[in-house]
Amino acid sequence: MIALISLLVVILFSIIIVRIGAVALEMTGLSREMATFQAQSAFSGAGFTTSESEYVVSHPVRRKIIRTLIFVGSAGVASAVATLILTFVGQTQEEATLRLGWLVVGLVVIYLFARSKMIDKGMRWFIKKALERLTSLKLYDYEQLLGLSRGYSIGEFTVKKGSWLEGKKLRDLRLNEEGIMVLGLYRRVRDRECFFGAPGGETVIIRGDKLICYGPEHAVRKLSERLKGKKGGEEHKEAVEEERIRRRHQEDELKSLGRSMG
User: What is the pTM of this model?
Assistant: First the structure.
């Protein structure tokens, strides 16, 4: 029975470690979904070969977190297998059946523990506070900060042949009038992909550039599809007008809120 209890403790401990790793990764700027997936992948050693994984390990702090998860995970998996074997080795059929029943009950309890939103919220709060106290990591809810659930988005797209953006300076594109900001761009230079953060107005957009843009979701999507020519110019004017109307509505809403608060 001690081996069975040890197995359940190892499983519970593994879940907590993965949760700590996920919160730590999230505190480096990853989305909750990606952070959770990468923490689970690193701990289990399965599936940690995706392009997302390459992006994660390119960050020094994330790389350290992933390395720790892989190290602890290798020990955790080995311990789980060993205790699982010890749980059933040398037992009669009746004892093995009884232990199997207790194992199933224990796994169900652990599953409910792991799936509980209330427990998850409490654990995340505790882990966040502990990591902030013990490390230099800070947790930012980028979805809330950037209004990603309120019609805004961060879009990434590649400038293709015939794009309205191709061959123009950022200043001349006047994307700010459409409510769009170019946060950065990836450009292949001599077989190496380089990143340019917050590119200036003199930056010329060329075919193959991968732009990271922030703005109203529909505006970013339309920009990625806009083609050269008269139609592209008309679409730009329409987007500017839409943004002007949107800003006017925002200003009216702010004034209304100001009056209600006053």
Answer: 0.55
pLDDT > 70 fraction of the chain, expressed in percent and rounded: 84
C-alpha 211/C-alpha 193 separation (Å) is: 13
Helix H or strand E segment including 232: helix 230-261
Q: Going by CATH, does the domain composed of 148-261 fall within 3.30.70.3270?
A: no
pLDDT, greater one: 171 or 1 = 171
pLDDT band at 71 (very low <50, low <70, confident <90, very high): confident
Distance CA 139, CA 137 (A): 7
Helix (H) or strand (E) holding 241, with range, is helix 230-261
Q: If we measure between CA atoms, which residue out of 168, 210, 173, 167 comes closest to residue 189? A: 210
CA 233, CA 212: separation in Å to the nearest integer?
21
**CA atoms of 74 and 208, how far apart (whole Å):** 41
Q: Give the Cβ contact number of residue 137 at 10 Å.
A: 16
Question: What's the CA gap between 256 and 233, in Å, rounded?
Answer: 35
For residue 245, name the pLDDT band (cuts at 50, 70, 90): very high
